[in-house]
Write a structure and sequence with these properties.
alpha/beta; five-stranded parallel β-sheet; three-stranded antiparallel β-sheet; binds adenosine monophosphate
Length: 214
């Protein structure tokens, strides 16, 4: 099962993607996580990506597309994968289709987690990320067991640079300009499914399972 998660930053698509990956035993591929891992390791890619990410801009397509193309041909992707945060532009979607076509494959579902902008801004202010392992939480909806401490590795939590209010506004406008057109793109391919992302996370996940089939 090959799935794309669509939705504005902060719509909750990452949380849903992780749960889908767990349930269906397929890899969760998050380009944001890959970039953050590269930043932490201090790689050339990380250095380049950081300048765009800190501004709320997209990392250029040429850096992003190759990364995903290399990842989805790996052995662990043979039964499918869930893409989280990719594609984010029409050229990325076209490049993905081309890569899959060369493999004799195609995407099965594009799931849009739909949340209005006003909810997004409120949500992002409550988001916290682990300084060490990158795990994400929310002070209200996904709290840690001990306040300010990561459940997974015990390190401290921060409000990520790109989750700060001014950057969130920028990311939202980038989303509307560059990523939202994908809804029409996948609608045209007949694989678009929309779920109401304002519902509690558990209900959103149930809606997704209903779409994908238990
Ligand atoms: P995310 O964790 O998916 O919200 O991604 C965080 C940031 O990484 C985004 O705001 C972008 O700067 C960058 N990024 C992640 N995925 C992509 C992508 N597919 N294309 C371009 N930039 C991306």
């Amino acid at each position: 099962m090959k799935i794309i998660m669509l939705g504005a930053p902060g719509a909750g698509k990452g949380t849903q993607a992780k749960q889908i990956a767990d349930k269906y035993q397929i890899p969760h591929i998050s380009t944001g996580d890959i970039f953050r891992a590269n930043i932490k390791e201090g790689t050339e890619l990380g250095k380049k990506a950081k300048t765009f990410m800190d501004q709320g801009e997209l990392v250029p397509d040429e850096l992003t597309v190759a990364l995903v193309a290399d990842r989805i041909v790996k052995e662990d992707c043979k039964n499918g994968f869930v893409l989280d945060g990719f594609p984010r532009t029409i050229p990325q979607a076209e490049a993905l289709d081309k890569t899959l076509e060369e493999m004799g494959e195609k995407m099965d579902y594009a799931i849009d987690v739909d949340v209005p902008d006003e909810n997004i801004v409120n949500r992002m202010g409550g988001r916290r990320a682990c300084v060490n392992c990158g795990a994400t939480y929310h002070i209200v909806s996904i709290p840690t067991k001990v306040e300010g401490i990561c459940d997974d590795c015990g390190s401290g939590l921060i409000l990520r640079e790109d989750d700060k209010p001014e950057t969130v506004q920028k990311r939202l406008s980038v989303y509307h300009e560059q990523t939202q057109p994908l809804i029409e793109y996948y609608g045209g391919q007949g694989i678009l499914k929309t779920v109401d992302g304002t519902r509690p996370m558990k209900n959103v996940f149930e809606d997704i399972i209903r779409i994908l089939g238990a």
